[in-house]
Amino acid sequence: MKKFNIGVIGYGWVAGAHIDSINATGQGRVTAVCSSRKLDQAELSAKHGGEIQCHTDLKKMLADPAIDVISVCSYPYQHARQVIAAAEAGKHLIIEKPLALNLKDLRAMQKAVARAGVKACVCFELRFSSQLIATKSVIDRGLLGAIHYGEVDYYHGIGPWYGQFRWNTKRNAGGSSLLSAGCHALDALLLYMGNEVKSVSSYSTGSANKDFKKYEYDTSSVTILKFKDGRVGKTASIIDCLQPYYVHTHLVGSEGSLLDNKFHSNKLGGPSGLDKNKWSELSMKMVDSGDVSDHPFQSQFEAFFAALAKGKPMPLTDLATAAKSHEVIFAADLSAKKNRPVKLSELRA
């Protein structure tokens, strides 16, 4: 199998996780990093293993014909320009979330990738976590029947004690509670229920705690989704909570329900199927950390490199799928701003 050479844009917290995960796949190797600050090549190479070229000029790194893939780990407001440049240079892409902070930039990125004929992997990596894989398996096996209501909520206090806080507080950097972090939960909800959303209604607020006063946008939001077939979903994005990291899931179907790592189904016999007062336990590791070093990047990147080697699209987290999740987020943020429901067709018009 071909081994891919990867160039990384940005060298912060998430870039370190990308580099180590890419190198651990055995299918790819980071050979270059471009950062706005000058990096010590010997130090970087020793830290991550193998020779890594250091750049401050993105055009120079993109001009290297030996680089197959670019991993974009910069600030979200830089993504559009850098993704477009990388696509035009013929490089495949790994793009950190959020893809962009507005619909205009998202569309420009999509057009550039389509024109160039390159493939992209978007870092909604929780789709490769034990929790989401096990939950999707229960759904796919029909144990819940037809799901008519679902909720996936994101609780993660991103305060001064957290590295992301430094830039996440700015509207032109973090964007919104959903864009900066809660997008993982909304994306999971769409994985479970489908992405054919008709309209959204969103409301937002913020904490009175002084630690969160630097935020230029509301740090808590609740979004209600109305799907085209009449089903309903909900996502809360709470980045001003004081509690352990928690991704809450509750799915209700015609034949059963799922609550985090438990489920109940009429499809099964015995206690779990007949006794409505008992849950069955799922063997899964709950997503319990916001630290990127704990996220399943390696599994995601292995899937991406395997797809590239076969000339196939990225499974689960391709650009088109991730773009639909972002469209729902942009509609939700517009709904909260305008204090009214927003139809997805308003964005696509």
Give an overview in words.
The chain has 349 residues and is of the alpha/beta class. The chain folds into two domains: 115 residues, NAD(P)-binding Rossmann-like Domain (Rossmann fold); 193 residues, Dihydrodipicolinate Reductase, domain 2. The protein contains twelve helices and 15 strands. Strand 11 and strand 12 form a beta hairpin.
Brief synopsis:
By secondary structure, the protein is an alpha/beta fold. It folds into 2 domains: 115 residues, NAD(P)-binding Rossmann-like Domain (Rossmann fold, 3-Layer(aba) Sandwich); 193 residues, 2-Layer Sandwich (Dihydrodipicolinate Reductase, domain 2). It is built from 12 helices and 15 strands.
CATH topology description of the largest domain: Dihydrodipicolinate Reductase, domain 2
Mind describing the biggest β-sheet? 9 strands, mixed
The geometry reads as globular
* Terminal CA distance: 43 Å
Q: CATH homologous superfamily of the largest domain, by name? A: Dihydrodipicolinate Reductase, domain 2
CATH class group of the largest domain? Alpha Beta
Proportion of residues in extended strands: 15-25%
CATH architecture grouping of the largest domain: 2-Layer Sandwich
Identify the strand order in the major beta sheet: 14-13-12-11-7-10-9-8-15
Q: Tell me the Rg in angstroms.
A: 21 Å
Fraction of residues in helix: 25-40%
- According to DSSP, the number of beta strands is 15
Tell me the series of helices and strands, N- to C-terminal: EHEHEHEHEHEHEHHEEEEEEHEHHEH
Helix/strand class? alpha/beta
In the residues, how many domains can be counted?
A: 2
State the low-pLDDT regions, or none. none
